[in-house]
Amino acid sequence: LERESLVAFDAADDADSLEEVRVRYLGAKKGALKDVQKQMGSIDPSDRKAAGMRLNEFKSKIQSVFEASQDRLGGGGEAGVDPTFDPSLPGIRPNLGHIHPITQTVNHLMEIMGRMGFEAAEGPEVEDPWHNFVALNIPEDHPARDPLDNFYLATASANSDRSVEGEQLLRSQTSTVQIRVMENRKPPIRVISLGRVYRPDDPDATHFPMFHQMEGLYVDEHVTMANLKTVLRVFATNYLGGDVQIRFRPSFFPFTEPSVEVDFLWNGNWIEFGGAGMVDPAVFEAVGYDPEKVSGFAFGLGVERLCMRRHGITDIRDLYSGDLRFLRQF
Ligand code: PHE
């Protein structure tokens, strides 16, 4: 064993293999030396003293061989430590990433609406005209379907087929998810959908060609506009803080009737955050619901707008600039 171990220590040619050899012979638990030590008990008592001395001799020899190998490999101190390493120098702090402010907002909105019993639903960002328009009561000749106002996929030529089976586009609103949910489920329904939408707007302080919406849909028997107003007011109070007042202004959307613009009174100003209304009977018919039996409300709020108001952000482009000096503040 002695000879074998001396050869092994000599053969170690880097810190890793030296460490392996050290564990093999000097390891506190399974090292060969430990094995020998364990056998001491079974030695005849009259021989035990001599054997113990021999073992100690072996131990110190092997220990010094180990240290010699360490010196030879330049380890000096602890095995595997770079001798040029200066532990007194200040460390380099690793760059930790964190969650983007819009993702934080999405999570926060989901949590607030979740407490009111709304569960999250999702839909694809590349949509067909049925879900983005037709089922939402937006007919073929409606200006909202204009190629100048939508990102049709490259396979779609400007004046090609814009019918139900027509060309795909990047969804321009999360109202598409209302249709997808109702097509697959029966009332009662209480969902929100938070996701990206796309419109070919020139970027400025308040516009960006990609932004996020929070869509809400509540369908049951006897749902009223008062329910809509209460849900939105409770939501705004939770997200923006304080007792936020809410105002509805008459508006028009093809998929709601009546339709309203939603304003919140915040820091003394009435600010528009999105649109809402009672689900249009034509939409219920498109998904196979009986408009005589169920009623519902829907709303769509701008996520960036909510996030920007809450955090005092004045330019939407900052959110998507990737500038860490900006992003690190959240
Ligand atoms: N989809 C509408 C928009 O993008 C908002 C909306 C959603 C209005 C739901 C009414 C109901 O402007």
Describe this structure in words.
Residues 102-306 form the Aminoacyl-transfer RNA synthetases class-II family profile domain. Mg(2+) binds at residue 257. With 330 residues, this protein is an alpha+beta fold. Helix content is 38%, strand content 21%. The protein is built from 12 helices and 10 strands. The strands form 2 sheets. A 7-stranded mixed sheet has the order 1-5-6-10-9-8-7, with helices on both faces. A 3-stranded antiparallel sheet has the order 2-4-3. Strand 7 and strand 8 (256-266) form a beta hairpin. Helix 1 (2-11) runs antiparallel to helix 2 (15-26) and helix 1 (2-11) runs parallel beside helix 4. Bound molecules: phenylalanine (PHE). Phenylalanine is lined by residues 173, 175, 253, 256, 274-277, 298-300.
